[in-house]
Description:
A: 202 residues; Glutaredoxin; five-stranded mixed β-sheet; B: 137 residues; mainly alpha; 7 helices; 51% helix
Amino acid sequence: MRYLAYIFLIIGIAQGCQSFDNRTLPILGNREAVNGDTVYHTIPDFAFLNQDSQLVTNETFAGKAYVADFFFIACPTICPKTTKQMLRIHDHFKNEGRLLLLAHTVAPKYDTVAALKKYAYNLGVESNKWHFVTGDQAAIYAIADDYFSIAMEDPEAPGGYDHSGRLLLVDKNRHIRSFCDGTDPKDVDRFIVDIETLLNEK
Amino acid sequence: MKNKLTFACFLALFGWCACKETPYQHGKIMYTNFCENCHMADGSGLKGIIPPLAKADFLQKNKEAVPCIIRAGMKGEITVGGQTYHTEMVGIPKLTEFEITNIINYIHTSWGNNLPPVKHPDVRTWLKRCEKNTKPF
């Protein structure tokens, strides 16, 4: 009887480990049922300009996953912290061709292509890995919503803009699979594990 | 009598705890509120954009300019630890001489920095000097 219990215990542990190995991330956001199929929240079409004046669209990320966030250069509050964590992710996945980064400015009035170029250059990163994009302010603020983020102009806010510091993981089907608080290095540790899990999905 | 004794013990314990804390507790709180967003909790800054305060040679060499930087900001190009930086830091004019002194002393004794403390009257003199030539850099 005792042996039986041990055997079950071992099977249970083995089973548990196995399901951990094949762990998949959930698809986040609202879902709808259309004709019996589930339709998941999807990042809509977009078109912005990056630090090298290249057009960046959904096609830029075809077949790849990416991490997105919102920031602005002259930001006196959380942005340096979130950018620092983005840089950590950048360095961690430097040689991983299936992961890119996408930072949207919420202050396109000031953060021109030239300004973004200088910023990326100072950080020492390249546009084929990490896109810093600018564009139509209304389009950026609208898409922030789709990334579960806040972006708005607010004269009362420090630096004149209000935005959240979330980092979001988008898969090759344009679905959001994970996110974290970009100001909290511990939360980003967990997020990096999630990115690895996503890249290991079949 | 017994109550008084308990109270005294508590007081002694409290004093002991308070002394064990970082010596520049007030400076630490002010740093968290006014500097940490940019220079980071560990003083490491942000590569290429915001210079570090941890083990920064700049702090050592420009001791007298630091109070002015805190109050009036800076925007020229500087080199810290072999890396050049050229981003504007906006000054924080509302900080008092006392607060600036405490922040500097917190920085001077944190993250591997081992710089001597600055004194309030010196900070006052250095700030006076910076009022005259507006910005040090």
